[in-house]
Amino acid sequence: MIPPALVLATAFGYLLLLFAIAAFGDRRAAQGRSIIANPWIYALSWGVYCTGWTYFGSVERAVSGGVWFLPIYLGPMLAMFLAWIVVRKMVRIARTYRITSIADFIASRYGKSPLLAALVTVITVVGVLPYIALQLKAASAAYEVLAIGQGAERAAVWWADGTFYVALMLAAFSIVFGTRHLDLSERHEGLVAAVAFESAVKLIAFLAVGIFVTWGLFDGMGDLWRRAQELPELADLMRLDAQGPGSFGHTQWFAMTALAMLAVLLLPRQFQVMVVECTDENHIRRAAWLFPLYLLLINVFVLPVAVGGILIFGQGGADPETFVLALPMSQGATALALVVYIGGLSAVTGMLIVETIAIATMICNDLVMPALLRRKGFAARSSGDLTRLLLNIRRAAILFLLMLGYLYFRIAGAGHALVSIGLISFAAVAQFAPALFGGMYWRGGTRAGALAGMLGGALVWAYTLMLPSVAGAGWLPAGFLQAPFGLSFLAPEALFGLHGFDPLTHSLFWSMLVNISLYVGVSLAGAQSARDASQALLFVDVFRSTGAEPIFWRGRASIGDLRGLAVRLLGTDRAEALFRDHARETGLPADALTPDARLVDRIERQIAGAVGTASARVMVASVAQEEPLTIDDVVQILEEASQVRIYARELEEKSRKLEAATAELRALNEELKSLDQLKDDFMSSVTHELRTPLTSIRALAELMHDTPDIDPEERAEFIRIIVSESERLGRLVNQVLDLAKIEAGMAEWTSAEVDMRALAGDALRATAELFREKGALVRAHLPDEVPTVRSDADRLMQVLMNLLSNAAKFVPDTGGRVDLILRRHGNWLELRVQDNGPGVPPADRAAIFDKFRQAGEVASRPPGTGLGLPISREIVNNLGGEMWLEHQPDGGACFAFRLPIEQGGST
Amino acid sequence: MTARVLIADDEPNIVLSLQFMLKREGYEVLVARDGTEALETIRREMPRLVLLDGMMPGLSGFEVCEAVRADPALEGVRILMLTAKGRETDIARGTGAGVDDYVTKPFSTRELMARIRGMLA
Prior knowledge:
The complex is a heterodimer of chains A (907) and B (121). Chain A is mainly alpha-helical and 907 residues long. Chain B has 5 helices and 5 strands.
């Protein structure tokens, strides 16, 4: 045994650690740096599904029924295939309409019915109570194994029973955990962080004990299996068709899988962590495969531990529910036992805290608040902060729930194994399924149908499952279960003579039959109210809403009343923020707000986060005069909304077009600016080019004029320079004008069949003198026959002359060589002028066709205007061809251009 | 003693005219074809006056001017900038570059000669 003080101290220390984590989570949330806003934490928090029932009960179930413990986990795994569709829709609806509990969800769908909310809450409380009792039982049993020893007698009176104090402590813990904040925001970041942490701890602890049993006590899985096969009662456990002590049928396999599938979505704590605490819809995608993985891991060692326990303790030698603790204890591994105990504590506290907080919220919002609101004057009272009252109601509800759970534990719990208790709760929450899923996907479901179905199903459940479980404790006459009131066809576990099913399948069959039939039947038979119809639209089409949702509210209200209501429930800060946001979105100044439907709807949604949708509606109704809606009104509002939606879309379209136009204008402006810049650059280049020869001309002329005795030779030189600089000026002016004309599209073009071969010959003859002066060798490579091109012969001559004279300028003074090559290239006629000069330096190649960009060092460059190549390129472009500079591997420049050969043209 | 004058310009014909003009007045004339060569010649020959073209390949006239002004050893060197109208003249007028005087191209030889005489007096 471990000293009780040590066990208690460890447990207490662990709870303190949880507090620290929760406090950290809350602080980070307040700073806007959420620690739970990631898919891993989110998926781990789903692990709250695995309670003390999993932790201790699975082994017990495996001992009694072999692999039959699995459906409880198979169901959720199957459910996860649908998570992206179903859970995401639930999250979107809950987020949009500020729904904070499953009661709220269902009630909101059916016209925000307070009656429906109350019914769901009552079913939840009654249904989940056994589950809470089960956790208390697990917690106390675990403590007993560690500190007291197996088989100790339960204390006869409650005040001497340790479990009572466990319940009290857990209540205190939950109260502090879940209702620490005065503000009633529906999300609890710190709580989720702590729960996720607990999920990790219980998984690790269970894996630890599994590994200890499998490899520590035995020789691995194979060894365990071999030994198990030697014991006949164990061999049966490994077979799917086992007819062992539990003797379950296949129908129950199906029933349990289906139940678990529903439970993982409908249990209050699952709804809390999956839907209410979801920070990002996209996390669902990851959680949908992480969560099944978690379930798989936590179940891996269930059978090994069960088999190991039976092998060591013998059948009936120890309570299988406590194998995970008893096995390490029996081997003296007390440290591991303590770790396992902490894991179990995690499983129990995680479930209790989240479940009681979730249900307490329902009790507060859907049972207590409506009762208070019915009291005259309560809702209309204009002063007083309600948040503290709400918190206290929730605290009391948590305490109430745990005490009730303890009561159930005292009355019925001792007689039942953990697993069968849990299934009762599963079957209870399954009654929400038709109304909830029907409501999400079927617009026809009505409030009356939901009420009838749920009430009917719940009554059948209570009669066929809850009652026998209580009867087992000896509260009812012995013969009642066989023939109540002397009528055997009313037997709770064989209704109308339906035999052959186990009690669970039997109950599920009848309750679901009644539930679904009533839901569908009553919905179809009765007329749908306007409020029902409008909420149905909002739920079913939640993914279609695009900003301009229809608001199904008409009536009158005053800003002052609305503000007062908001302040009472949200506090001054949040209320003011709400009005500010509304003013900003409507574009009105804060003091000119009108109490229109949109504002009322906004306030109602915000309040719904604090008190639930049904109560929020009642409270808003108490300060605003609502006009009842008819179905016609709903249709009209819908039409208006779709009209607004069309306008919004058109507006969006227009603003998009406007944006595109603006961007176009901006681009155009940039282009103009850069063109302007180009023009400025061009102007400054032109003036510079003009100024240089002018300066020489003026200076030389003045000097000759002022120096009468100038040497005749010098005079002749000066005059030669003046003439050549004048020519340069004239050429420059002509080229500038030429270029300007071509660029402006004002140049005149002739069009005729041009024989490029003849033209090249002419150009060569015209430039022959230039090359002779330089002593350069010119070679022409002209094919015998080339097709003519339709072009402007004079302009092409200008281009050829430019290229050839450039080549003449750049070839070396000795050994200069120029090649002119003409050839056909597909549909193009290509002409190249290649020289063996210095070539164009790499840095200048990109800009060689720009105006005034002569390549090479200025000092050594031959005279030229810097406009020849730009003009040539403009000409070729205008004639439908292109011009480029080609890289020459052996140095030298090669300018080339090509012109299109017209298809079908003469050759 | 004849003053030594450096002509720094990349246009051969302008250099030719300036050279003729200065030699006629009896100055000793040096020539540089770009900014780098100009700066080297200034450091080596310590001319009294530099006729500096504003826009030259390599170092521009203004960069040469700055380098000269930054060098305490070249304190006695005077600079007359030959500028194109527009931005260059604006800079020279602002004397931010440290020129002693400027003349815009195309210039009058008489006016230029008068200024040179004034600066060397």
